[in-house]
Design a protein that fits this description.
Pfam family, one: ABC_tran
Helix content: 25-40%
CATH architecture: 3-Layer(aba) Sandwich
Protein name: ABC transporter domain-containing protein
CATH class: Alpha Beta
GO cellular component, one term: plasma membrane
Strand order of the largest sheet: 6-7-8-3-9-10-11
Radius of gyration: 19 Å
Keywords: ATP-binding, Nucleotide-binding
GO molecular function, one term: transmembrane transporter activity
Number of strands: 11
Bound molecules: adenosine-5'-triphosphate
Length: about 230
């Protein structure tokens, strides 16, 4: 089953007399549970592609279906996005005065009947992303960049997304941290059958089932040393 089908997509931004054509008759198909890495130069359109998939900006031409829904037919896009999609960037969105665990329980009164249940879920997810028990009551400022990103990720996972869009998530991490975060991502995505698209500037990503490169408005499949155009 496909989680994403994007067919014959064109996208351009026009400002005054300048026309910036980002995508030209581009197509993309992603299976459920697949991890796809998309690389591309600075400004090649990686973020725009993820935003189109998340129904945050429409293509000029072509059709995108995500989780079986034609994005143009979705009425309340932000509700739909919140329910099904996790969108993360390299910026963590942690709040200085909340502890690690409180970040996952935000908006929940500790007197609520399901507080204990959510609290257990939060602990489980934090453990799954590699946060230790003694970090649960720490504040963000005492944490490393990679742990901050793991907590941001854990927060998103609390919403049970079926699709994760990770835009240059690891671009400020060193090799070792990147490997650690990637390993975490693979473990939970396999466990929960989450489909993932990651982007990055011209780097490789060992964990991906498939690697694509965005070049001249098209996606090319990268297979070892060979490249071929998808559409
Ligand atoms: N809302 C917008 N209006 C006009 N131009 C835009 C808009 N969003 C992006 N662009 C332009 O489109 C191009 C691609 O931007 P995008 O952020 O998608 O690329 P990217 O590959 O993610 O780049 P980066 O590596 O900088 O994150 C850039 O030239 C950018 O300035």
């Amino acid at each position: 089953m496909y989680v994403i089908t994007a067919n014959n997509i064109s996208k351009k931004y026009i400002s005054g007399n300048d026309k910036n054509v980002l995508f030209d008759d581009m197509s993309l198909h992603v299976h459920e549970g697949e991890i796809v890495f998309i690389s591309g130069d600075y400004g090649s359109g990686k973020t725009t592609l993820l935003k189109m998939i998340a129904a945050m900006t429409p293509p000029n031409h072509g059709k995108i279906k995500v989780l079986g829904k034609d994005l143009l037919t979705i009425q309340k896009r932000s509700d739909w996005r919140l329910k099904h999609i996790g969108f993360l960037t390299k910026e963590d969105s942690l709040i200085p005065y909340l502890t690690v665990k409180q970040h996952l329980l935000m908006g929940l009164e500790d007197t609520a009947s399901d507080f204990e249940l959510f609290s257990e879920d939060a602990k489980y997810i934090l453990t799954m992303v590699g946060i230790s028990e003694d970090q649960l009551n720490q504040f963000p400022e005492s944490l490393t960049k990679v742990d901050r990103l793991k907590i941001t990720l854990a927060r998103v996972l609390m919403g049970n997304p079926r699709l994760l869009l990770l835009d240059e998530l690891t671009s400020e991490l060193n090799e070792e941290q990147r490997f650690e975060l990637y390993r975490t991502i693979v473990e939970f995505s396999r466990l929960q059958n989450i489909t993932i698209i990651l982007t990055g500037e011209n780097e490789s990503c060992d964990i991906a089932d498939r690697m694509l490169k965005l070049e001249n408005g098209k996606l090319m499949e990268v297979n070892d040393n060979t490249k071929f155009i998808l559409h």
